[in-house]
Amino acid sequence: MTDKRDLIILGGGLVGMTLALAAARQGISSHVVDKAKPEELTAEGVDGRASAISTASWNLFTNIGLADRLAPLGCAIEAIAVTDGMKPGRIDFKPGADDGSLGRMYANRDIRLALFEAARDEPLIHWASGVEPTQRERGEHGVAVTLSDGRVLEASLLVGAEGRQSPTRLEAGLKSAKWDYSHRAMVTAISHEQPHGGVAWEIFFPTGPLALLPLLDLPDGRHRSAVVWTVDEKDAKGVIALSDAQFLSEIGSRMEDIFGEIALIAPRMAYPLNFHHAARIASHRLALVGDAAHGMHPIAGQGLNLGLRDVGCLVEVLTEGMRLGLEPGDAQLLARYERWRSLDATTVMATTDALVRLFGVPGRIPSLVRRIGMGAVQRSGWLKRFFMDEARGMSGDLPTLLRA
Questions:
Q1: pTM for this one?
Q2: Which of 202, 219, 220 has the alpha carbon at shortest distance from 211?
Q3: What is the pLDDT of residue 338?
Q4: The predicted structure's pLDDT at residue 1
Q5: Does position 217 have pLDDT exceeding 80, yes or no?
Q6: 204 - beta bridge partners?
Q7: Which H or E element spans position 333?
Q8: At 210, which helix (H) or strand (E)?
Q9: 171: phi > 0 → left, psi -120 to 50 → alpha, else beta; which?
Q10: Does some domain include residue 184?
Q11: Which of 52, 202, 346, 374 has its CA at a distance of 20 to 30 angstroms from the CA of residue 94?
Q12: Could you give the 3-state DSSP secondary structure of residue 184?
């Protein structure tokens, strides 16, 4: 007998598995397909990245039952310091006493472990790992995916969550605006002498920003932060070739020793940076979520949060539609999902791209202009509140799962 489910989710990463779990909490069943096995995705050193989880995204994790698993592992972001090359005129974002933190920092591996543990206990999630789709069919009455081991999965709706190079998006002919930033992100983690105080630093340079993101102290008491150093692609090979001591010296000079003595505590990894934004994120019995729909520069730390807002919106649209007797692949529901996500996604993508270009202009005069503008934001209460609400993900028309 065929195990036909409501959804087939292609891609079991952070966004895909969150979607499966959020859907299951609303009684929506799914097949989740990922070419990697869970033990491969959660092995030490496979993914050294960390993610800033906004307040809205934390609400989502809480509402789908992950709070107890994740709460002890995250470091609260108590403030954000934005500076142009450590020169005068920086912006300090610090929420009020009743606002809570600006978000939480998590190692991607810790989020995956929590998601995978919850998914294993959820009967509405069928997890097919270590296999790839060889054929996707979207018919009038449902969708079917043939796997590399010969199995055929059936559902009402196909969801592409495979990341920026989504073969599902390409096969469906959903075109994207895209360009290469000619930047590469150098990702690692450091221990440091002075505590970070929960402050996330974004230090801008014309060649690319240096982000220092607070993490929980190590068990031995050492303070630590995640590092994302963006360098020009033409310099990337040279930076990758640096010894650990030389690498530390380079980032230390850019930090101006705000944390005192520093040391590497994680492998160094490098990721190319590009932009893509699909004009349409829904088609016949198909929806895109996360990086399959839109991939951005990590300059504002909003990539994963944008994908989690996709999850919240799609689950709410499907849940309300199914209560009315509609099936998940109904064209009306997919049209609503696409409309709902259009403005938010376009705004975040455009803002992020503008920041990359604004802070990438070299020279003393552009730097002075930027710092004057930053000083104006620093003195303006309502502007700071606006930017903090954006960073916390608490602006706009939020789906229920992303509310407290």
A1: 0.93
A2: 202
A3: 97
A4: 46
A5: yes
A6: 84
A7: helix 331-358
A8: strand 210-215
A9: alpha
A10: no
A11: 346
A12: strand
